[in-house]
Amino acid sequence: MPKAVPCPNCSKRVPWTPESHWRPFCSERCQLIDLGEWFDEGHRITEPADEGYASPQRDEEPERH
Questions:
Q1: Does the N-terminal or the C-terminal CB of the chain have fewer CB atoms within 10 Å?
Q2: Distance, CA of 32 to CA of 11 (rounded, Å)
Q3: What is the pLDDT of residue 40?
């Protein structure tokens, strides 16, 4: 039996197979609801996943050689 994961939107079990076109979502509807949450800033990434990651400062000039 294939592994099943919960839909991030409605928690319905979704088989993790190539035939599950919207995985990890159960349907296009749940996928679009989640996308709308990102657009409305209901979801956001607030910190880098890796603490060692340093993003470049925007006001720094690039080094010239």
A1: C
A2: 15
A3: 84
